[in-house]
Amino acid sequence: MRAAVLKKTGEPLHVIDWPAPAEELGRSIIQVKYAGLNHRDLWITKGQYAGIQTPIILGSDLAGTCRGVDVIANPAFNWGDDPRFQSKSFEILGLPSMGTLAEQVFVPDSAVFPVPGHLSAEQAASLPLAGLTAYRALMKRAQAWKEDKVLITGIGGGVALFALQFALALGMEVYVSSSSQNKIERAVKMGARAGVNYLSPDWEKELLNQSSGIDVVIDGASGSDFSKLVKVCNPGARIVIYGGTRGAIQNLSPQPVFWKQLSILGSTMGSPSDFAEMVDLVNQYKIIPIVDSVFELDNVNHAFSRMESGLQFGKIIVKVHN
Amino acid sequence: MRAAVLKKTGEPLHVIDWPAPAEELGRSIIQVKYAGLNHRDLWITKGQYAGIQTPIILGSDLAGTCRGVDVIANPAFNWGDDPRFQSKSFEILGLPSMGTLAEQVFVPDSAVFPVPGHLSAEQAASLPLAGLTAYRALMKRAQAWKEDKVLITGIGGGVALFALQFALALGMEVYVSSSSQNKIERAVKMGARAGVNYLSPDWEKELLNQSSGIDVVIDGASGSDFSKLVKVCNPGARIVIYGGTRGAIQNLSPQPVFWKQLSILGSTMGSPSDFAEMVDLVNQYKIIPIVDSVFELDNVNHAFSRMESGLQFGKIIVKVHN
Which residue does chain B place closest to A248, by CA atoms? Predict the structure, then answer.
């Protein structure tokens, strides 16, 4: 089969022939039509991820067919028994197991879900990892509900956009941040109340003026601006951290954290029931994932460049096979 | 009546005659026997607290009598309707209302509770603010239970000692930290499994060796060592911040926070039901607060010096009246 293989970190992917996976009890082989990229894949190509083994076929997201049925797959394997956190044997499709940038991929039977009927294959391939991460962050960790005012930072990323769509579907008032005015405007067109440019030195004051205070933050950035998130929070607010693109948190004053009874909640991926609930939500509200762009498998390295540019608004998809 | 009055921040207290409070509907006058000090009182004398008004009688903790009954008082007034956080009209006894370092003090009727029968008046005066803070932090915010391994930092402080006593009463395995070997040994005698000296550069490794990982942290320090708390945490752990004696949090890497699904939870004081539950726990398990020292009202400034020294193990109490 054809596959996009990372032979060595720091190198581009190589689209080459690779042995197809063999049948195994309890596992399903999926014929991949579209694969979706995540920042995780980019970090791995750069060697900035724990436990990298090469050669590896990257990719955690797919839409394809399995025994004649259109399917997607939950990329979070071996979550374990505790809904609060993943077990020691937890892994994510695409490292160490071979990923979705290949004509065939092998996943546990229990990971296979039918494609929501209202979605194209490109849209379906956008959903799994980012949708799961957003769902757990917003619904399980923050326990957001319709009376909450929600801030989603870095709008345009996959998780951020799903968090926006889920929050809007459930009737929440949503605010966004981005370094791109264009992305803020697109989010507002989707239904966000307003947005702020985080390059502006006083963005937190602007956001307080817009919102009169935030109850839930969904943040994938961390970094030195994290303490400003605390400033915009109402008493009892929950800030969920699902990523750290802007590095370590600095100068976080404890007084507003305890005085406002804030909760700063780490979240990554999700349990099998989180995934099933997320798919139910997408079906119930007919949520359509935002596809930024679709690349041919031969142009997979252009897809990675697009991700690295930070210009995308929505998911970057790779067409693996018709 | 006699009272210890802060006339101006930066000055010692003055023990002087002061007008007794007058009767008012919905409020009870308590004849104070003993008052307890808290760090809050020390910060106020230094001007390091929001909303200071002088002259003010400091003190949030008391044991005394009210209509012939031995009583204590919940020092957290006007919590409001939401159990998750205090309302805008929330206040703490001893600023802006006149506090307990006086022969009489005025509190809302609903704040008055009978003294637990197994406690002396000195012990009872140790309980309210620190017991409430510890109870909410451990039980409501961390939702600790008997299978949890608990780390309590800065053992010797009032909140830390109540957290230790509550956790031990409920069957948890408790570890402590301090800069004093003597305090660690006293905590171990009380039932802590072990402790580490946080001045040691590798205390987090030592603690991991002792405990194999921590599920709940009760921390009143914050500061640059906060990121080490993250290192000792098991997946799903909860770190409660109730104070910031060591300043802002620095260099907090987001990756272990989200990967381990940690919860960093601010907590201060507690609701009326938190207070009632705390008193129930003290009654049920016959918990006896640790009294560090008792000072005469005339020596109230020595009591403040004792607090500032950091040498205390338990509550510093002032005898106001027999």
Answer: B253
